[in-house]
Specification:
- By secondary structure, this protein is an alpha/beta fold.
- Helix content is 31%, strand content 21%.
- Helix 5 packs antiparallel against helix 6, helix 13 packs parallel to helix 15 and helix 15 runs parallel beside helix 16.
- The longest helix has 18 residues.
- It holds the Pfam family HPPK.
Length: 828
């Protein structure tokens, strides 16, 4: 639009703000039946009339403008008419359209566009208001930017990266806008089904239960939750979230994100030349899926990952074919590990599957070339399609790009993918063995063609599964470090001794599978003179071997050997003495003529990297660290980082699992968790237990540090232990048992421990002695020594089984195996 003198008039408007009425509308903040009668409530009406005001501006004559007093009267008359519709009430969307039509009739033909906003402050429970804004052009039935909205929804949540921001909930202000690209008739249908109250409740529950580090991630997640709730692909959702407490010299920072699920796929890049324009410094996040079902499946996957982390020999092999000769890549995170039934060709062994994330400056085609070369290096042989393979490395996504290198006329089939690159992977949405590991890493990544998130795709796929289909189960492999060649290369990967299938472990979007034995038993072998329970009993090699043999006979799954008591007041033991206590026992077990004893899994209970390394190289298979790599100092000191790096190096080199336990230095100290009372109620109104929140934050921080970034541990290497009896009160210990599953709950957004295998060690602990020593009536119950707390331990074991704990650390193996069997029979 332009005036006669050539000046642009596209910004000319007459606006009327905040006309107030009381009207019987069908919208309500409560789920009540309003089909027979509207709900009388306040309504604020605002109008925007777009027209050329250049003539009025120069002549100072109202005839070429709009009389806003008259327009106000027109709106008032329409609203007065609406008051008479008590039989049904009116919908805000229908009322807005009536107002637009009446305003066009009351104005002259030079009016270009009229917008009407209806704001309903009482039709929503928590937010300041909800409503509708519609826009119409003259002589056009087509909707113009019709938007439903929810204004100023005040919520609180844990949000931020700073330590103090992880301790208390902060206020947020959320504004939501919903635009639909359907025509006017369809929008009338949607207006009757649009449920601002339902969206408000969904977002309120989600945000207040979340614990994101960045406002950007939270905003993106809120948009995704709204899109999933709305369902229809033609919605465009905008979320604007303010964080008022973030800046002291500003009212608030705000993040605004708009997302839709377009039903029309974007045009894919058609050939390799399209990917060569990338800057050599541009880093892209790439998702790869790995699988193996031939040979040592676990070793093959680990070897493939090590070639990704140290690709020099691979790059030499494929360098002449690379687009970017100076590119680099690094593995920054891995998923959990799963055992899955074969798909497509079912008559073959089960697969081990996982996913990993890379950061790279290579092109997508370069990543494909590197992946194929790694497959060959690990030992993949040509076989039937979807048949057995030593390892499979598939490119699943390359940032948010859509790439298809096949000729344009040959993209309708999936039978011509050999040697071609199609990303996102064309079979992604039908493969649980890809979606589930991917969900561990980036559940809210949205498919660039469909807009569906990984979480949504997985939920839809699981919903279609039949009850007869075998479940995907998490697994933990145990390496045999005695098979290391010690050749100094990163490709020296030990063979696999055995592996565990975790039937209890929390899995997203899946019911728990508890068929057969689900809870694993760790027997405790203390080679110390002063352990609180069995100090001095297993100091001799003969006694230690007898305990191990008895434990195997009684059904133990792993034996935990320790040479340094961590009870309060225990004597300090030198590193050399600790090694001399544990290594001979490990070597004797591995040299035994008893085949069951020789092959039993062994964990080394130590916080010293020197002891861990000596024990693993002697034949142990797991590192059990009560300080989660950070040493006994609390708070941590500069020496902590060195100890952390060394323990991580050993776990990486030997490829063994690690048990990371929550503690705060001396076991009898630092029991104050009052700072965590500020977390408030969690999703579903559950009471938040401060000690649980502390464990999630403090142990979760250490776990994330170990499993994220260059040189990370594999996620499947980590087992978490809440540290019962370590810097915990009696009430804290009981709360941990009562709510143990909450620690690894996969449905808690932002939970850093979500999905990790959980170990509980309550056996014979002093808090059990305190419970059973309480007075009963007028009689005092005598305090019992640790060795007489097995019945109390059995009660704790039963509770842990009910809480779906994966591993129980016990002293009396035979008795606790019986307790587990009965408990599993009950809870199954």
């Amino acid at each position: 639009m332009s005036s006669k003198d050539g000046l642009s008039t596209s910004g000319d408007h007459i606006r009327i703000h905040g006309l107030s009425f009381s009207l019987p509308l069908q919208e309500s903040a409560w789920s009540v039946d309003v089909t027979s009668k509207g709900v009388l409530q306040p309504v604020r009406v605002s109008l925007d009339v777009a027209l050329d005001l250049s003539e009025t501006g120069s002549s100072d004559n109202l005839t070429s403008s709009v009389d806003y007093s008259h327009i106000s009267t027109v709106v008032q008359n329409i609203c007065s008419e609406s008051k008479r519709v008590w039989s049904t009430g009116v919908r805000a969307y229908d009322l807005a359209n009536e107002i637009v039509d009446a305003c066009f009739s009351a104005t002259h033909r030079d009016v270009e566009c009229i917008s009407v906003e209806l704001e309903l402050p009482k039709a929503i429970l928590l937010a300041e208001s909800c409503g509708i804004k519609i826009s119409r052009r003259c002589n056009s039935e087509k909707s113009q930017d019709d938007v439903f909205f929810i204004h100023r929804l005040p919520l609180t949540t844990i949000i931020g990266v700073l330590p103090h921001e992880r301790k208390r909930k902060q206020p947020l202000i959320i504004n939501l806008f919903f635009k639909n690209a359907n025509g006017k008739k369809r929008l009338q249908e949607y207006s009757r089904r649009f449920d601002p109250g339902g969206i408000e409740q969904l977002i309120s529950d989600f945000v207040q239960a979340s614990s994101f580090h960045t406002l950007e991630a939270l905003t993106s997640a809120v948009v995704d939750e709204c899109l999933e709730f709305l369902g229809d692909q033609k919605w465009l959702v905008t979320a604007a979230i303010c964080k008022p407490a973030a800046l002291t010299m500003a009212a608030a920072p705000e993040v605004v994100l708009s997302r839709s699920r377009s039903p029309f796929p974007q045009t894919p890049l058609s050939d390799s030349s399209s990917t060569r324009s990338r800057s050599s410094s541009t880093r892209t996040v790439v998702a790869l899926a790995l699988g193996a079902n031939v040979g040592d499946r676990f070793r093959n996957i680990e070897l493939a990952l090590r070639y990704l982390e140290n690709p020099e020999p691979i790059l030499v092999e494929v360098r002449k074919n690379l687009d970017n000769m100076e590119g680099d890549l690094r593995v920054v995170e891995t998923s959990f590990l799963y055992e899955t039934s074969p798909m497509y060709v079912v008559n073959q062994p089960s697969f081990i599957n996982c996913a990993c994330l890379l950061e790279t400056t290579f092109s997508a085609l370069d990543i494909l070339r590197i992946a194929k070369a790694i497959e060959n290096r690990v030992g993949r042989q040509k076989s039937e399609r979807f048949g057995p393979r030593a390892v499979d490395v598939d490119v699943i996504s390359f940032g948010i790009e859509i790439i298809d290198t096949r000729p344009e006329g040959k993209r309708d089939s999936l039978d011509n993918l050999e040697g071609q690159l199609v990303v996102p992977h064309p079979r992604l949405q039908e493969r649980e063995f890809v979606l589930r590991p991917l969900h561990d890493l980036m559940p809210r990544w949205a498919h660039p063609s469909t807009g569906l998130t990984v979480d949504t795709m997985l939920r839809k796929l699981v919903a279609r599964k039949s009850e007869n289909e075998a479940p995907m189960l998490k697994v933990i492999p145990f390496s045999n470090a005695l098979t290391l060649k010690e050749d100094g290369t990163p490709y020296d990967v030990p063979s696999t001794l055995s592996y565990w299938t975790l039937r209890n472990s929390a899995v997203h979007n899946s019911s728990s599978i508890r068929q057969g034995k689900a809870t694993l038993i760790m027997g405790t072998l203390n080679a110390t003179p002063d352990s609180f329970s069995d100090g001095g009993k297993h100091l001799s090699l003969v006694d230690a071997l007898k305990y191990a043999e008895d434990a195997i006979r009684d059904g133990v799954d792993i034996i935990d050997i320790g040479g340094y008591s961590t009870r309060p007041g225990a004597a300090v033991v030198s590193t050399e003495d600790e090694i001399s206590r544990v290594v001979p026992i490990i070597k004797a077990i591995r040299a035994s003529d008893n085949e069951l004893l020789k092959c039993v899994l062994i964990s080394i209970d130590t916080f010293r990297w020197e002891v861990a390394e000596a024990a693993i190289l002697a034949g142990a298979n797991v590192i059990n660290d009560v300080y989660a790599f950070s040493g006994p100092q609390y708070p941590t000191t500069p020496t902590t980082e060195a100890a952390y790096s060394e323990m991580k190096r050993i776990a990486r080199k030997t490829n063994v699992p690690v048990i990371m336990m929550h503690s705060r230095g001396d076991a009898g100290s630092n029991k104050d968790y009052s700072l965590f009372t500020a977390f408030g109620p969690s999703k579903g109104g559950k009471t938040v237990v401060p000690v649980l929140q502390a464990i999630k934050l403090e142990l979760g921080t250490k776990v994330m540090k170990a499993t994220e970034g260059s040189g990370c541990l594999r996620r499947w290497q980590v087992i978490v232990d809440p540290g019962i009896g370590f810097s915990k009160s009696e009430a804290d210990n009981l709360a941990i048992l009562r709510h143990a599953h909450d620690l690894v709950d996969v449905e808690q957004s932002g939970n850093p421990l979500a999905g990790y295998p959980l170990l509980i060690g309550a056996s014979r602990k002093s808090f059990l002695g305190s419970v059973i020593a309480r007075s009963k009536g007028n009689a005092e119950v005598a305090s019992r020594p640790a060795s007489e707390r097995d019945f109390a331990t059995a009660a704790a074991v039963a509770c842990a089984v009910q809480q779906k704990v994966d591993i129980l650390r016990v002293h009396n193996v035979r008795g606790m195996v019986d307790a587990v069997k009965v408990s599993e029979a009950i809870w199954n």
